[in-house]
Design goal:
Trna Endonuclease, Chain: A, domain 1, 6 strands, alpha+beta
Length: 117
């Protein structure tokens, strides 16, 4: 897994404003995402629109560094995303590219990764 998920970038960027959820999940499961890690090696969370913690994720290290400059990028596969959700109770991930963003329930990532195995 590299620090860039080109397939995920294409799913987010190459749309008419409509992101196909199946394509989005497939790209996340196949290529992972980049998450932000702080100085204590802990995952960085944000407050979502619902007031609860969300996991910010990115298509590449550059977008992560742009959006969370106080942290460092860390490549994260689907299994690790499921682990983060299980350990922290976070339910929602937001995935950002250079110009687009999508919200993804982590339960769907878990289901899609299980179906792929």
């Amino acid at each position: 897994m590299t620090a860039e998920n080109a397939a995920l970038t294409a799913v987010l960027e190459d749309t008419d404003g409509e992101i196909d959820p199946a394509d989005l999940l497939a790209a996340i499961v196949a290529g992972g995402v980049v998450v932000a890690i702080d100085d204590t090696d802990s995952v960085v969370f944000i407050h979502g629109q619902d007031g609860k913690p969300w996991l910010p994720a990115f298509v590449d290290a550059a977008t992560c560094a742009r959006d969370v400059p106080h942290a460092r990028p860390h490549v994260c596969d689907a299994a690790r995303l499921v682990d983060i959700a299980g350990r922290t109770g976070v339910r929602t991930m937001t995935v950002a590219s250079a110009t687009q963003c999508a919200t993804v329930p982590l339960a769907l990532v878990a289901k899609a990764s299980t179906a792929r195995d």
